[in-house]
Amino acid sequence: MSCCVVGALQVEAILDKENFTLEEILDEEEIIQECKALNSRLINFLRDRAQVEQLLRYIIEEPPEDAENKRIFKFPFIACEIFTCEIDVILKTLVDEEELMNLLFSFLEPDRSHSTLLAGYFSKVVVCLLIRKTVPLMNYVQAHQHVFRQLVDLIGITSIMEVLVRLVGADDHVYTNFIDVMQWLAESNLLEMIVDKLSPSEASLFIY
To answer: N or C end of the chain: which has fewer CB within 10 A?
Structure first.
Protein backbone atom coordinates (compact mmCIF):
# COMPACT_ATOMS: atom_id res chain seq x y z
CA MET A 1 0.00 0.00 0.00
CA SER A 2 1.49 3.37 -1.00
CA CYS A 3 2.31 6.00 1.59
CA CYS A 4 -0.25 8.36 0.01
CA VAL A 5 -3.01 5.79 0.46
CA VAL A 6 -1.93 5.13 4.02
CA GLY A 7 -1.87 8.88 4.68
CA ALA A 8 -5.34 9.30 3.22
CA LEU A 9 -6.64 6.50 5.43
CA GLN A 10 -5.04 8.12 8.47
CA VAL A 11 -6.76 11.43 7.68
CA GLU A 12 -10.07 9.60 7.29
CA ALA A 13 -9.48 7.79 10.59
CA ILE A 14 -9.13 11.14 12.36
CA LEU A 15 -12.27 12.48 10.67
CA ASP A 16 -14.14 9.34 11.76
CA LYS A 17 -13.46 10.08 15.43
CA GLU A 18 -16.28 11.56 17.46
CA ASN A 19 -13.99 14.24 18.83
CA PHE A 20 -10.80 15.43 17.18
CA THR A 21 -8.84 18.67 17.01
CA LEU A 22 -7.45 20.83 14.27
CA GLU A 23 -3.99 20.06 15.66
CA GLU A 24 -4.49 16.34 15.06
CA ILE A 25 -5.35 17.09 11.43
CA LEU A 26 -2.40 19.46 10.97
CA ASP A 27 -0.04 16.87 12.42
CA GLU A 28 -1.03 14.32 9.76
CA GLU A 29 1.66 14.03 7.09
CA GLU A 30 -0.70 13.78 4.11
CA ILE A 31 -3.00 16.67 4.93
CA ILE A 32 -1.80 18.96 2.11
CA GLN A 33 -2.05 16.14 -0.41
CA GLU A 34 -5.59 15.46 0.78
CA CYS A 35 -6.47 19.15 0.43
CA LYS A 36 -5.14 19.17 -3.12
CA ALA A 37 -7.11 15.98 -3.81
CA LEU A 38 -10.20 17.92 -2.62
CA ASN A 39 -11.10 15.48 0.14
CA SER A 40 -14.63 16.75 0.80
CA ARG A 41 -14.83 15.70 4.45
CA LEU A 42 -11.52 17.36 5.23
CA ILE A 43 -12.39 20.54 3.35
CA ASN A 44 -15.80 20.78 5.02
CA PHE A 45 -14.01 20.66 8.37
CA LEU A 46 -11.33 23.19 7.42
CA ARG A 47 -13.79 25.67 5.88
CA ASP A 48 -15.54 26.13 9.22
CA ARG A 49 -15.09 29.61 10.64
CA ALA A 50 -13.49 28.39 13.86
CA GLN A 51 -10.88 26.38 11.96
CA VAL A 52 -10.11 29.24 9.56
CA GLU A 53 -9.63 31.54 12.56
CA GLN A 54 -7.21 29.12 14.21
CA LEU A 55 -5.29 28.62 10.96
CA LEU A 56 -4.91 32.40 10.73
CA ARG A 57 -3.67 32.58 14.32
CA TYR A 58 -0.92 30.07 13.56
CA ILE A 59 0.20 32.34 10.71
CA ILE A 60 0.08 35.74 12.43
CA GLU A 61 0.72 35.05 16.11
CA GLU A 62 4.10 34.26 17.65
CA PRO A 63 3.99 30.96 19.56
CA PRO A 64 4.32 30.94 23.36
CA GLU A 65 7.88 30.71 24.67
CA ASP A 66 7.32 27.17 25.93
CA ALA A 67 5.67 25.94 22.73
CA GLU A 68 6.58 22.62 21.15
CA ASN A 69 8.51 22.61 17.87
CA LYS A 70 5.45 21.62 15.85
CA ARG A 71 3.60 24.71 17.15
CA ILE A 72 6.55 26.91 16.24
CA PHE A 73 7.33 25.50 12.81
CA LYS A 74 5.01 22.78 11.51
CA PHE A 75 1.57 24.19 12.26
CA PRO A 76 2.21 27.70 10.82
CA PHE A 77 3.75 26.13 7.70
CA ILE A 78 0.85 23.72 7.18
CA ALA A 79 -1.71 26.48 7.88
CA CYS A 80 -0.14 28.64 5.17
CA GLU A 81 -0.07 25.71 2.75
CA ILE A 82 -3.77 25.05 3.33
CA PHE A 83 -4.65 28.62 2.33
CA THR A 84 -2.33 28.57 -0.68
CA CYS A 85 -3.92 25.36 -1.96
CA GLU A 86 -6.46 27.94 -3.22
CA ILE A 87 -9.54 25.97 -2.15
CA ASP A 88 -12.38 28.36 -2.92
CA VAL A 89 -14.68 27.55 0.02
CA ILE A 90 -11.84 28.05 2.54
CA LEU A 91 -10.81 31.37 1.00
CA LYS A 92 -14.48 32.39 0.84
CA THR A 93 -14.89 31.83 4.59
CA LEU A 94 -11.99 34.22 5.12
CA VAL A 95 -12.93 37.04 2.75
CA ASP A 96 -16.65 36.92 3.59
CA GLU A 97 -16.08 37.72 7.25
CA GLU A 98 -14.62 41.09 8.15
CA GLU A 99 -13.52 39.91 11.60
CA LEU A 100 -11.35 37.22 10.01
CA MET A 101 -9.88 39.72 7.55
CA ASN A 102 -9.19 42.08 10.47
CA LEU A 103 -7.41 39.21 12.22
CA LEU A 104 -5.26 38.48 9.16
CA PHE A 105 -4.21 42.11 8.74
CA SER A 106 -3.67 42.61 12.45
CA PHE A 107 -0.27 41.07 11.72
CA LEU A 108 0.74 44.50 10.38
CA GLU A 109 0.09 46.33 13.65
CA PRO A 110 3.17 48.17 14.97
CA ASP A 111 3.26 46.28 18.27
CA ARG A 112 3.73 42.90 16.54
CA SER A 113 7.18 41.36 16.26
CA HIS A 114 6.95 40.74 12.48
CA SER A 115 9.32 37.78 12.37
CA THR A 116 10.63 36.97 8.91
CA LEU A 117 9.06 33.50 9.10
CA LEU A 118 5.54 34.68 9.91
CA ALA A 119 5.82 37.66 7.54
CA GLY A 120 6.49 35.17 4.76
CA TYR A 121 3.39 33.16 5.61
CA PHE A 122 1.24 36.29 5.94
CA SER A 123 2.45 37.54 2.56
CA LYS A 124 1.74 34.24 0.81
CA VAL A 125 -1.84 34.25 2.07
CA VAL A 126 -2.41 37.89 1.03
CA VAL A 127 -0.96 37.28 -2.45
CA CYS A 128 -3.19 34.20 -2.76
CA LEU A 129 -6.23 36.33 -1.93
CA LEU A 130 -5.07 39.03 -4.32
CA ILE A 131 -5.03 36.50 -7.16
CA ARG A 132 -8.04 34.34 -6.25
CA LYS A 133 -10.30 36.78 -4.39
CA THR A 134 -9.29 40.06 -5.99
CA VAL A 135 -12.55 41.99 -5.57
CA PRO A 136 -13.31 41.13 -1.93
CA LEU A 137 -9.68 41.72 -0.94
CA MET A 138 -9.55 45.09 -2.66
CA ASN A 139 -12.94 46.03 -1.21
CA TYR A 140 -11.49 45.33 2.22
CA VAL A 141 -8.35 47.37 1.57
CA GLN A 142 -10.41 50.27 0.20
CA ALA A 143 -12.47 50.26 3.41
CA HIS A 144 -9.35 49.95 5.61
CA GLN A 145 -6.83 52.22 3.94
CA HIS A 146 -4.55 52.24 7.00
CA VAL A 147 -3.46 48.82 5.69
CA PHE A 148 -1.50 50.67 2.96
CA ARG A 149 0.47 52.69 5.50
CA GLN A 150 1.13 49.63 7.64
CA LEU A 151 2.41 47.67 4.63
CA VAL A 152 4.63 50.55 3.54
CA ASP A 153 6.02 50.89 7.08
CA LEU A 154 7.17 47.25 6.87
CA ILE A 155 8.56 47.49 3.35
CA GLY A 156 12.01 46.57 4.66
CA ILE A 157 10.77 42.98 5.03
CA THR A 158 11.27 41.33 1.64
CA SER A 159 8.03 39.36 1.69
CA ILE A 160 6.02 42.47 2.59
CA MET A 161 7.67 44.34 -0.28
CA GLU A 162 6.53 41.50 -2.55
CA VAL A 163 2.94 42.07 -1.42
CA LEU A 164 3.25 45.76 -2.30
CA VAL A 165 4.75 44.93 -5.70
CA ARG A 166 1.72 42.71 -6.38
CA LEU A 167 -0.68 45.26 -4.95
CA VAL A 168 0.41 48.03 -7.30
CA GLY A 169 0.36 45.55 -10.18
CA ALA A 170 3.99 46.03 -11.09
CA ASP A 171 4.84 42.41 -11.82
CA ASP A 172 1.74 40.89 -13.39
CA HIS A 173 -1.70 41.59 -14.84
CA VAL A 174 -3.77 40.50 -11.87
CA TYR A 175 -6.10 43.50 -12.29
CA THR A 176 -6.61 43.19 -16.06
CA ASN A 177 -10.28 42.28 -15.64
CA PHE A 178 -10.89 44.72 -12.80
CA ILE A 179 -10.85 48.20 -14.29
CA ASP A 180 -12.43 49.78 -11.20
CA VAL A 181 -9.64 48.41 -9.02
CA MET A 182 -6.98 49.71 -11.41
CA GLN A 183 -8.57 53.16 -11.45
CA TRP A 184 -8.86 53.30 -7.67
CA LEU A 185 -5.22 52.27 -7.21
CA ALA A 186 -4.15 54.89 -9.72
CA GLU A 187 -6.02 57.55 -7.76
CA SER A 188 -4.71 56.43 -4.37
CA ASN A 189 -1.43 57.72 -2.97
CA LEU A 190 -0.03 54.21 -2.43
CA LEU A 191 2.71 54.57 -5.02
CA GLU A 192 3.71 57.95 -3.60
CA MET A 193 3.93 56.48 -0.08
CA ILE A 194 6.12 53.64 -1.36
CA VAL A 195 8.49 55.90 -3.32
CA ASP A 196 8.89 58.20 -0.31
CA LYS A 197 10.00 55.24 1.79
CA LEU A 198 12.52 53.73 -0.64
CA SER A 199 15.85 54.47 -2.21
CA PRO A 200 15.75 55.27 -5.96
CA SER A 201 16.93 51.76 -6.91
CA GLU A 202 14.26 50.12 -4.75
CA ALA A 203 11.56 52.50 -5.97
CA SER A 204 12.27 51.45 -9.57
CA LEU A 205 10.59 48.11 -8.76
CA PHE A 206 7.29 49.95 -8.51
CA ILE A 207 7.55 52.47 -11.33
CA TYR A 208 6.80 50.92 -14.69
So the answer is: N
A 10 A CB-CB count for 137 gives 22
Alpha-carbon gap, residue 96 to 144, rounded angstroms: 15
The runs of H, that is alpha helices, within the chain are 3-16, 22-26, 31-36, 40-46, 49-60, 69, 75-84, 88-95, 98-105, 116-132, 134-143, 146-153, 158-167, 179-187, 190-197, 200-203
Question: What pLDDT, on a 0 to 100 scale, did the predictor assign at position 187?
Answer: 67
Tell me the C-alpha distance between 67 and 76, whole Å.
Answer: 13
**What is this structure's pTM?**
0.84
For the beta carbon of residue 13, count every other beta carbon within 10 angstroms.
11
Task: Using the predicted structure, report yes or no on whether residue 148 has a pLDDT greater than 90.
Answer: no
